[in-house]
Amino acid sequence: MHDSPSPFGIFSALPGAVISALAVLLIGFSFGASGDPAAAPRGLAAQPASSASHSAYVSDVACAGCHAAAYDAWRTSHHFHAMEVPDEASVRGDFGGAAFEDAHARYRFFRRDGCYFVEVAGGAGAVEHEVRYTFGWEPLQQYLVEGERGRLQALTIAWDTKQGRWFDLAERDPAPPGDPLHWTGREFTWNFRCADCHSTDLQRHYDVAADRYETTFANVNVGCQACHGPGRAHLAWASGDRKASDKGLAAAPGESSRAQLDTCARCHSRRRPITEVPVPGAPFLDHFIPDLLGESLYFSDGQIRDEVFEYGSFVQSRMHRSGVVCSDCHNPHSGTLHADGNAVCTACHNETPPERFASIRPLSYDSPAHHFHEQGKAGSFCVDCHMPARTYMRVDPRRDHSLRVPRPDLSAATGAPDACTGCHSDRNAAWAAARIVEWYGPGRRQEPHYGEALALGRKGAPGSGAALAALAGDTTQPSIARATAVEMLQRHLDQETGPAVAGALADPDPLVRMAALRTLEAIAPGARVDLAAPLLDDPVRSVRITAARALAAVSEAALPEQRRAAHVRASEEYVASELAAAERPESHLNLGLYWAERGDIEKSEAAYRTALRLAPDFIPAMINLAELKRAQGQNDDEARLIEQARDMAPDNAAALHALGLLRVRQGRQAEALPLLASAAAMAPGSARYAYVHAVALESLGQADAARAAYMTALQRHPYDVDLLAALLQLQLRSNDRDAARSTLDRLIALRPRDAGLARLKAQLGGR
Question: Domain Cytochrome c-552/4: where (predicted)?
Fold first, then answer.
């Protein structure tokens, strides 16, 4: 341990080689406005505005009288076509008897009595489904059909509007019936997955007890009031009641860059909702928590990987930091760019930049002297180099809105793609970097990039803690990158990096404060109190609920008296934030974990059981409920649940790992070993599974096999401290001092200030 006490002095030089109980934690799940099946599928059985809750909304036609130009532009937009009742004008697919077949079913699209149908013929026979709504406009259109208990489901067979063909959204093998990713499954239920971003004033009205929706909306598509707020009071103002200084509108997206970004981010982001019905005009972070630059979503330099929409990219950009907003480039009503080709960029990036953006270097940007490509050909357009595209849903290219300067010189360090070799696929990044030096000279700015620290942190390599801590405190860098660095510090907390986390708790940006609160979960609950408690009163809801979650394991008595009331309020907000997505089993899993930490076993078990009632195949809830039963001494119930998980999902690594641990506790080691081995093989990305398997081998006296397992795992996870420490212990017990010195050197490179490691090095002596 570190010699001096500190909330961040938490690392042991030599972690004990013990098999710990499995805990599955899925704190954050997020969704975007629309997109690929893994990111944001759809579906719904909604009704138009039929309840009093929509009474403040009016028909969008009412706006046309005073705002004709905006209304006419909106009628041409994708927002207008976001969702429509099917008719000759709205349906783009071939419903003239066209057929499509995948591995599981045959689909036939046809019309009858003026309505649109799809017949699905598979193992259960042929079933006709009437199309209730169209979904989207181009480059593809999906179709919504009725499911059970008020749901609408989005067909995964979609219409390619460019090629004029039916196609399957699945890149590879389509999911079979019964799978959550099949079009009848929960991942394609519109009511939750993207309803709120394709209609106006969407209210899901989900009843968790009945697992049923009574979803309603004010207007079927994304209309004027989706961005400006309900219009009835504004109509009264426009008709002569001019008392309201805000003109009767709840939202004013054009009044500031923050207001506009918050308005657009509600749908143009990868995020999770924390309230049931977001309030138009309210701060984005009071109703949603956006994803940071996670490895599955973004490359390490922040370029888009999965479909993340625009917010997470745009807030990385210099444009954002300079005050540029969405409407500087896009007509907010039609959604189209203000100009064609390079003209939208050269409106500012030219020889005489506008005074508003005086930092722009005066140049002729739309010229081969700048882009070094033939005018009008690929490479000569600004977006080719500064906004490269990735294709989602097989036919939908989306441009990266981080508006970055190409940096092929960073590719080797970050592993991220670069725009140059994205086109010149027969060349490598070194070639591209050399061309840039040739064109712009060796003095071209090559300042350090936050992607280098994030790439280092993802690997967990030596020096990553210091690099992440430096990025966390660098206020010249994008807040989303700094927040990502702070969250990654959870793996690197010590006396050197701890102050960066403490400083992040007081950061002006709420994303950074949230990330710091999550990082506190790496320290003992009691040590979190003084750090997290002040944020229970944070002005931003997403920060308050994160503080409440960080303090879940802390009793009220352990909190300062002046913080207890705030803790109660923030805790209630946290529970409500999970129930805002009550139809999702992940929410109830999160609540089960929360109540277990609070010591309320009854509520914890109820939450896990709700998750399993909604999704009987949800393995994480099954395993955590089993762990709860074990903690209560109910070993028979624990065994039954874990064996049920294995039977339900025999190819699920978590289920096999949990069963292996159960067999260890039962003293059935011979049965445990193959289960743990299978789990490690099925999930090679899990260092923990590999570690437990190797420890099990060693505990059964198979030292050589354990050593081989550690070495194999370290090839994939070379900087995993637990693997290195366990291997070191094995080498010391085997009196293999040379190998132990080598392993110890690797540990010291990762934990250079660990006094225990230093003492051990002195004991082992030189080679």
Answer: 62-86, 188-229
